[in-house]
Amino acid sequence: MSAVKPLEAVARDRVGKGAARAVRRQGQVPAVIYGGNQPPQAIAVDLIRTRTLIYAGGFLTTVFEISAGGRTVRAIPRDYQLDPVSGVPLHVDFLRVVAGQSVEVEVPVHFSNEDAAPGIKQNGGTLNVVHHTVTVSVAPESIPDAITVDLTGKNIGDTIHVSDLPVPAGATFALDGAEVVATLVPPTVLGAEVEAEEAAVAEAARAESAAEAAEETAEGESKEG
């Protein structure tokens, strides 16, 4: 489960594009906290802190304790915008966390023990991942950092479905249980074709070098004669 993280913020009195630009010029990111049957609250958060949190990963599955305007509220990021060129955060939306409610979050799917999967270790197969994340409905305090699938004993042709995933306590998956998360596939034919093509190119290069050497030898002998 992700730990609740503190986040300092400043309450904003003004909203709109002009106000947002002014906030960004001060090295902050405009944001809003909404939900929980309360009016939206406009805030600003530190740019460097926000950028670090976003690029560290897990930002959208982390509950924050936000202090702003003399009040502290628990909220989870629901969306953020980045500058398409620089990647700098431009805006963040936070959803208030209310006791007893569940939230839908995208949780990453990780895979462990690939060395213990005969299909990969002995037979040269590949893990073809269909879903790198799954949508989970869960209480905010129970959001997992990731869902880990054990590949021990998996062989080529085996399929991992949503129903095979370990379910976090009190959580449900938005995807149907029959949905495919990953499969173990045999070595690709394309890989063999590439290797054969590279070998053919190398052989042609060797033959060309040998022909050039033979020509140079013949020319030398002709001059001597």
TrEMBL record:
Pfam families associated with the record? Ribosomal_L25p, Ribosomal_TL5_C
Residues covered by the Large ribosomal subunit protein bL25 L25 domain: 7-94
Q: Which PANTHER family match?
A: RIBOSOMAL PROTEIN L25/GLN-TRNA SYNTHETASE, ANTI-CODON-BINDING DOMAIN-CONTAINING PROTEIN, RIBOSOMAL PROTEIN L25_GLN-TRNA SYNTHETASE, ANTI-CODON-BINDING DOMAIN-CONTAINING PROTEIN
What's an example Gene Ontology biological process for this entry? translation
- State its role: This is one of the proteins that binds to the 5S RNA in the ribosome where it forms part of the central protuberance.
- Segments forming domain Large ribosomal subunit protein bL25 beta: 103-187
Q: What is this protein called?
A: Large ribosomal subunit protein bL25
